[in-house]
Amino acid sequence: MNNESKIVYAAASLRTSSLKQETEGDSHIQQKEQILRRIEQESIRTGCKIIIKPEAWFKFSASASGEMITQPILEALEYCKNPKNKIKYFFIRSIDRGTRGGGGIYSQLKAEFAKYGVQLLDSYGIIGTTVINTLEDYGFKYRWSEFNPTNTNELIVAEGAKDEVRGILTRLIGAEIRYTKMGYP
Q1: What mean pLDDT do residues 7-17 have?
Q2: Distances (CA, A) of 59 to 20, 23, 161
Q3: What is the mean pLDDT of residues 140-166?
Q4: Do 98 and 113 touch, CB atoms closer than 8 A?
Q5: How do residues 83-108 score in pLDDT, each as one tens digit?
Q6: Sequence-ordered alpha helix ranges (H) in 28-101
Q7: How far is 134 from 113, CA to CA, in rounded Å?
C-alpha cells in the first residue's frame, strides 16, 4: 500500500461472556490480534488504509445471548451512527462474539449497522461484502434482485452460536439439578 492510499475509519468489538473468560479463555487481546490481521487483509483488498482510533475499540465482558435491546454491541453502534466518526467498517472476531442471539438478532444488528453505511466484518471472513445483482446482464436492478451470497451461511453460523448457548446451559443447569437432587447444597 502506498502513502497516497485512502484512509478509512473503522471500529471493533472485543467481547467475552464474563471476566473469567477474559483471563482464561478467548481474551480481548487474542480477539484484537485476529481483528488486526483481518484489517490488514481488508486494507490490501480495498486499497485503503483502515484505521481504528483507540476510542473505537469497544470491550465488553457480557453475555450477548439476550434480546435485541440487551445486546452489548449496541453501545458500539451508537458510536458508529455519529457521522463525525466516519465509520465504514465494524469488525468482530466472529459472529458469536458479536451476538449469540441467533439469526434474527444477527440480521437486525447487521441491518442497523448497514442503515448507517457501516459494513459488519468478522476476522474469519464468514461475513462477505459481495453483492450480486441477478439482473445485471439486463441492465436492471431491483431490491429483490440484489443479494449477498454469504448471507445464508452467516445466518447458519449465528443460529449455531445460539444453539451452543442452549447446550452449555443445559449441561450446567442439568448438573446443578442432578447434584441438588443428590443432596448437595
Answers
A1: 95
A2: 14, 14, 20
A3: 95
A4: no
A5: 999 999 999 999 999 999 999 999 99
A6: 28-46, 74-81, 95-98
A7: 24
**In sequence order, which ranges of the chain are alpha helices (DSSP H)?**
19-24, 28-46, 74-81, 95-98, 102-115, 151-181
The burial class, CB within 10 Å (0-12 / 13-18 / 19+), for 102 is middle
Length of the chain as a residue count: 185
What nine digits make up the cell of 135?
439482473
Cα separation of 11 and 52, whole Å?
6
Question: What's the Cα-to-Cα distance from 142 to each of 10, 113, 133, 138, 145, rounded to whole Å?
Answer: 29, 22, 8, 12, 5
pTM for this predicted structure? 0.87
Q: Say how far apart CA 128 and CA 54 lie, in whole Å.
A: 26
Helices (H) and strands (E) in the chain, counts: 6, 6
Phi, psi of 105 (to 5 degrees): -65, -45
Per-residue cell: 144: 429483490
Determine the Cα–Cα distance for residues 45 and 40; give it in Å rounded to an integer: 9
What is the distance between the alpha carbons of residues 93 and 124, in angstroms, rounded to a whole number? 7
Contact 92, 100 (CB under 8 A): no
Distance (Å) of CA 75 to CA 57, 61, 79, 98: 11, 13, 7, 12
Instruction: Take residue 137 and report the three cell numbers written for it.
Output: 446482464
